[in-house]
Amino acid sequence: QVQFVESGGGLVQPGGSLRLSCAAAGRIFSSLPMGWYRQAPGKQRELVAGISTGISTTYADSVQGRFTISRDNAKNTVYLQMNSLKPEDTAVYYCNLRFAPSAWGQGTQVTVSS
Q1: CA distance 73 to 29
Q2: Which of 38, 26, 21 is nearest to 72 (CA)?
Q3: The pLDDT value given to residue 27
Q4: What is the four-CA torsion angle of 103, 104, 106, 107, rounded to 10 degrees?
Q5: What's the pLDDT score for residue 63?
Q6: How many CA atoms lie within 13 A of 14 on its CB side?
Q7: Which residues contact 74 (CB under 8 A, 6 or more apart)?
Q8: Tens of pLDDT along 43-101?
Q9: Side-by-side strand order, sheet with 46-51
Q10: Exposure of 80 by Cβ count < 10 A (0-12 exposed, 13-18 middle, 19+ buried)?
Q11: How do strand 34-39 and strand 91-97 relate by DSSP bridges?
Q12: How far, in Å, CA of 41 to CA of 66, rounded?
């Protein structure tokens, strides 16, 4: 069982940036593909970015070119750098396994508004 603690969310104006962090505890983190997900009010949770055990990354079309996922296996941490934020990026952001997600953490709220 892997546990996740997300942080770094907040209120930001359109065009601004935030960096989310996700600390993972439990199984061998470095062997697990990871993903950042988000859930906006009234919508289903969606995958926005994924990273392999190495450096291979994938992104949803809606965030391609604006978001960057990275990981530090020595710190058991995954990051999501979010630039050029838009109001439609407003959501609770979660990290989890890229495939077969485990138990969800609390998430971190990102609100993009002027």
Answers
A1: 7
A2: 21
A3: 66
A4: 150
A5: 98
A6: 5
A7: none
A8: 999 999 999 988 899 999 999 999 999 999 889 999 999 999 999 999 999 999 999 88
A9: 10-12, 108-112, 91-97, 34-39, 46-51, 57-59
A10: buried
A11: antiparallel
A12: 22
Burial class (CB in 10 A: 0-12, 13-18, 19+), 33: middle
- Whole-angstrom distance, CA of residue 26 vs CA of residue 78: 14
- Assigned token pair, 1: 């069982």
Q: Is the dihedral of CA 70, 72, 73, 75 positive or negative?
A: negative
Chain centroid, CA 13 distance in Å: 19
Tokens of 74: 């020595």
